[in-house]
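User: We ran a pulldown and think these components assemble together. Before we commit to crystallization trials, I'd like a predicted model of the whole complex to look at. Sequences follow.
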Amino acid sequence: MTPHPGRRGWARAFVTRLRSGDEIAHLITWAFAASVFLITCLLLYELWDKSALPRHKFGWFFLLTRAWDPVAEQFGALPFIYGTLVTSALGMLIAVPLGVGAAIFLAELAPPRISDALSFVIELLAAVPSVIYGVIGIFIMVPFLRKYVEPHLKATFGYLPLFKGPMMGVGFLAAGVVLAVMIVPFILSISREVLLAVPIDQREAALALGATKWESTWKVVVPYARTGIMGSVFLALARALGETMAVTMVIGGAPQISASLFAPGYSIAAVIADQLAEATSDMYYQALIELGLVLFLVTIIINTLARILILTTAGRGTAH
Amino acid sequence: MSFRDVWRKSVNIVMFSLTGLATLFTVGVLFFILGYLIWYGGSSINWNFFTKLPAPVGESGGGMANAIVGSGKLLLLAAVIGVPTGLLGGIYLAEFGGQTFSFLVRYTADLLNGVPSIVMGIFAYAVVVLPMHHGSAFAGGLALAVMLVPIVLRATEQFMRAVPVSLREGALALGASKWKTVATVVVPAGFRGIATGILLSLARVAGETAPLLFTAGGNQFWARGWDQPIASLPVMIYTYALSAYEDWHRQAWAAGLVLLAFVLIVTTGSRIILSLGFQSSRSQ
Amino acid sequence: MDASSTPQAQPAARGEAAPAPGIPKLLARNVDFYYGAKKALHGVSLDVPANKITALIGPSGCGKSTFLRTLNRMYETVPHARAEGDVRLDGEDILTMDVTALRRRVGMAFQRPNPFPKSIFDNIAYGLRVNGMHGNLKEAVEASLRRAAVWDEVKDSLHKSAYALSGGQQQRLCIARALAVNPEVLLLDEPCSALDPIATAKIEELLFVLKDSCTIVIVTHNMQQAARVSDQTGFFLLGKLIEVNDTRTIFKKPARQETEDYITGRFG
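Assistant: Here's a predicted model for the assembly, 872 residues in total across the polymer chains.
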């Protein structure tokens, strides 16, 4: 019984394995696994190939130009990049304190069963389709913003360029708020898990020194889980950047850059959703696909960062 | 008690109250959404909604029968393409995988998972719609299938790996070949988790709108075959909600309720099945 | 090393081909085993006589289970594990045999009972179905359950889940499952270590009866069990087979100092 029985032995063994079906099973499952890899490559290829025209015509200026004029075939991505960034930033600004705060409550204060039940309910929020957020957005939230919130903001903070201009309800503010609601569940569930994973002895050490529960939480537990919470924030950011339907329905559809949050705008995903089906010329649809390429690359980078952050917290905390 | 102590205790109470409020607010949003949908949508749900085609603009009494069936067709196509791919790929990763290749597959699956759905739509647009010069159910189904694959793949791999080695050895020791062991012992043992993954992926994909807008398009009538534009529930909701007609708005609410009910029931149901499964299959 | 050279006294029952007299059922010569670069077995040579119980004893981690698993090539599921040397079943080299055919002839029961999450009936029938027998399974299932002395306890609940049984019953079920394909050799890897004394006694009784129709190799860290049950005992230490002989001889007058030290409890 030697490890190298010679070529005939290998061949015979191979045929036996083949007949027993193992090689076939290996091959078939391999093929399907490989197809996942291949689809991703194909996706990248298509994004790159089908955006050739505007890439050659505009080069890097695509990202810096403001004009979006299908008739004159001038395409600049800046308004959409701006819109995506502003709405995502606003969404994060609202969602991060909300999500981390609720996560702290569920991890530190709430009894385990309530914590699990509420966590389950909040995770259901993540399952709600985007278009439904959009419907609630248009019919309930936008009128509410227009009638109550925006006038109030204008009255109190109207001297800031953020709150100038006509208040129509739709616009960057509406999109930011909707995004916030949509990404809170992600921040919450990951932060909660990460907080729960902090070893009990960390809390006990703080409490034994006479700290209040809040001090123990805020000064010891949360910093320990810091990296994982950051990871959840990055993940939420990646979602916010790509969120399409709800944003499309409440952002107002105007390819412009404006300092005011009340102004209508556009995001990368929203303009693709709105205009790709109607794109009349090759340059037009390829410009939209180039926008898709930009979105794809940015999302990948942020997702990879997020994953690295979450993985490094998985084993040990960040306290050193 | 010094002032400092009082301050610290108050901070304690205030901060935790704030976090409690944050939780209440977040939870409240879900019930808020459900409430409005039931309130506005419930009244518009009637027999017409499920059985009639959309009526011409301005007329009332139309329904969304074609959109409901259309969503069904798209889901079916997505499942037929996406589920076997994810399932068999996941089996490969769990049972046969080599080091580097498995890492590549997992990484790209995670990549696909994190990509916005609209980019999947662009993929189907480039690969199917452009050559065909028009939208089709096939294009829409393909976009949805590509979204299904990473979810099913990860769930399959996870639940196959969770099956204890002792079960595999038991089968091998009886003279079963590797693929028979996988097919007749490991997959059945992990099946509950895998099925849950598949159901969750279907629920997620059923609500997707963006990729369908320029692949499956929309259709006021029944779509025959797979190579024509086809109506779907999410796209109808979008179109109707943005329209100017009261009747269509009401139908958008109703459709939203139906869609949300479907998604929530499947999601909750599969989670419950999963947690039940862990209790009943524990050996003593 | 003393090779036990008792020729087979009876031809094997149940119509199996009787090996030529003088050839042990299982024969190992100079078996080395490697986990990657680490050598776990050094030149193990052993004869396993037919229709006898051979016990392998020794402290934990000394290679007895590793050796047992070379006999039905179970090590092949572990990456970077390889065996070198000569192992023969009825004179046939087991490496060149089809591995699934080998495992049908050499069955195994494991340390912790590992029934499939199926009914009792389907557990026993599994080996039969997988090896192509689809005929009257009910009779075969009943026969195996009787051979494993567990039929009376489960005959009314064949369609219930195997997990509903107690630990001892599950282990006898696993033995029945292994017996269902009529193996010529049965390998038992510390089958009683997870069981209480009563369940252990039942299994030991079972082995006495089984050896008439089967050759048994049992790994155990319980010396009293080895002394009670086996005809031949081999002592393993640090990957080497130190000594193998009739059980009575090993326990009364071991030839090697290490054997005596282990048996008298000077080290665990």
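Residues 1-19 of chain C have pLDDT under 50 and may be disordered. That may be worth checking against your pulldown data before setting up trials.

User: Thanks, that helps.
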